[in-house]
Amino acid sequence: DNQTMSTIVGNNTKALKKGDPEPPLVPGVARIYGMRFCPWAERVVLYAAAKGMNVEIVNINLMNKPEWYYNKQPQGRVPAFEKDGKIVVESAIIPEYLDALYPDSSILPTDPYLRAKQKILLEQITPITSAFYGLSSIIRDNLEGEARDEKIKEAGAIIDGIEKLLTDEYFGGSTTGYVDWMILPFFERLTHLSTVLSLPSPFPCSSSSSRWPSLSSWFTRISSHSPSLFFQPMNLHVEFFKSFVGGNPDYDIGI
Amino acid sequence: GSWTIQDWTRQDRKQTPTNSAEMSKVVGNDTKALKKGDPEPPLAPGKARIYSMRFCPWAERAVLYAAAKGIEVEVVNINLVNKPEWYYNKHPQGKVPAFEKDGKIVIESGIIPEYLDGLYPESAILPTDPYLRAQQRILLDQVAPITTAFYGLFAIYREKLEGEARDAKIKTVEDAVDGIEKLLKEDYFGGSSAGFVDWLIFPFFERLALLSSPLSLPSLFPSSRWPALSSWFGRISAHPAAAAAVQPADAHLGFIKSFVVGGAPDYDSGL
C-alpha cells in the first residue's frame, strides 16, 4: 500500500435522489460518485484508497437519480470521478486517470510493456464478472436443481481459469497492483455468495482440499490491506441484494 | 466531398485520391496466411511485427494504427482455422491481432495502440494530457455497439434472413450508428485530425459500406441519415493509413462469401 493513509469521507452517506441538490464541489477536492454496494464503483474507491488519496464520496440512488447526475455520466451510471470541473467515467478508465493526476502514488506501471500486461491480464480475468452475475441469478430467479447446478458449474470453471493466472503473491506481482483492485470487488461478493448459496467449493478456503488455494490465500492476504476497510459488511450486502431482487433496492441499508 | 458507393467499390482503392507519395512502411499485408506446419518466420531484433488476418476488423485496427503512426512494421497473416502451432506462443487462444518486437508480445486490439504509442512516442496518436486521453478511451467504449451490431449483417447473409428477422438485424445496426452519429462533433472523433477512436472504429464502418450491396441495401452506409459519419467516412477512407490496411472490395467480398458459407474461409482471397 501507499505509505499515506487515505482520507475518504462520505462512504456511508445516504444516496442522493431526484430533487436532492447537487453538493457543491470545492476546487482541488476529488469526488467519486458511487453506490455503497456497486462493485464497479467500489473498484474506484479501493484504487483511491490504495493510492492514499483524499477523496469524498457522493452516493447516488440508482432507481431515482438526481437530475444533475446525468451531467456527470450520460446514462446516470456509477462510478464517475470529478475534480476541478473535469469528469471521467468508466471504472477501468478512472484508475488510469487517478494515476496521471497523482503520479507519486502510481499503481499502474509506467513501463509500456508492463502496463500493457496488466491491462491484458484484466481482460483475461473479466469473466469473473459474469461468474458473479451467474451466481447472483440463482438467488434472483430462484433457480433450483439442474438450472442452479449449471450456473455453479459455469462460475466454477471461470474461477478455475483465473486460479491459473495467479502466478505471484498478487496479480500485480509481489505487491498489489491495478488488476488486484479491479477484480477484488467481485471476489469479495463471491465470498458472500459462497456462504449464502452454500457453494460446493467454498471461497475462500484454506484447507488442503481447496479448489482454489492461490486465490483463497490471495483474498485473505489482500483483505488485510487498508483499502479493504471500505468493504461493506457481508450482512448488509446480503440485505441489500434481497431488497434489490425484490424490486425496491435499499441503497441506505445499515446507515 | 462525400464518398459514394461507386467510389467504395472501385477496384483500385489503394490509389487514394489524396497524397500517395508516402510509401507505406507496413509490409506484408498481402501475404498468404500461415498455417499449421508452416515455420515461424524469424523476427530480427529491433523489427516490429503484427500478426493479423487480411479481413479481420480487429487485426485491421492494429495495422491502421501502425500505418497512421508511420512506423516500419511487417505483417504476418495467420490462417485462423488451421493455426501454426507456434502461434499459440504469441496469443494463448491463437487470436489476432498480436504485436511482437524484441521478444515482447502484446495482444488485444484495444491495448496494442497504446503500447505502440509507448514504444514510439514521437508519433503518439493518443493525447498525452490525461483528461483528453481518458475522453478518447471513454469515447471508444461509447462507439463500441457497432462492433457487435455489424455481425448481424453476416448473419443475414449466412442464414439468408428475410422479413422481420432481417429487419431486426438491420435495426440493431441503425440504432448503433444513430448513437455514434450524435457523438461525432468535429471532422474526426479525435478532433481536427484522425485519432485513436477514428482508427479503432473505421474497420467496422468500412464493412458496413462493403456489405450494403451484397445485402441489397443500396444505402445502408454511407447514407444521408448519417451526414456527419458519411462525410467522416469519405475523409478517413482517403487517408494513406487506410490505403495501407484496407483490402480491395472484390477480395474482401470473396472472403466474406467464403466465410459465411461455412467450411474453410479463403484467407488468401484476392492473392
Automatic annotation (TrEMBL), chain A:
Keywords noted in UniProt:
Oxidoreductase
Under the GO molecular function aspect, what terms does this record hold? glutathione dehydrogenase (ascorbate) activity; glutathione transferase activity; methylarsonate reductase activity
- GST N-terminal domain boundaries: 28-106
**Highest taxon of the source?**
Eukaryota
List this protein's GO terms for biological process.
Answer: glutathione metabolic process
Q: Does the keyword Oxidoreductase apply?
A: yes
Tell me the protein's name: Glutathione-dependent dehydroascorbate reductase
Tell me the organism's taxonomic lineage.
Answer: Eukaryota, Metazoa, Ecdysozoa, Nematoda, Chromadorea
TrEMBL record, chain B:
Instruction: Spell out the CDD domains in the cross-references.
Output: GST_N_Omega
UniProtKB keywords: Oxidoreductase
Signal peptide limits: none
Instruction: Describe the reaction catalysed, as an equation.
Output: L-dehydroascorbate + 2 glutathione = glutathione disulfide + L-ascorbate; RX + glutathione = an S-substituted glutathione + a halide anion + H(+); methylarsonate + 2 glutathione + H(+) = methylarsonous acid + glutathione disulfide + H2O
GO biological process terms, alphabetically, are: glutathione metabolic process
Q: Where does the GST C-terminal domain start and stop, copy by copy?
A: 129-269
InterPro entries reported for this sequence? Glutathione-S-Trfase_C-like, Glutathione-S-Trfase_C_sf, Glutathione_S-Trfase, Glutathione_S-Trfase_N, GST_omega, GST_Omega/HSP26, Thioredoxin-like_sf
Q: Which PANTHER family match?
A: GLUTATHIONE S-TRANSFERASE OMEGA, PTHR43968
The record's comment on protein family reads: Belongs to the GST superfamily. Omega family.
What is the protein's given name? Glutathione-dependent dehydroascorbate reductase
Please name the source species.
Pristionchus fissidentatus
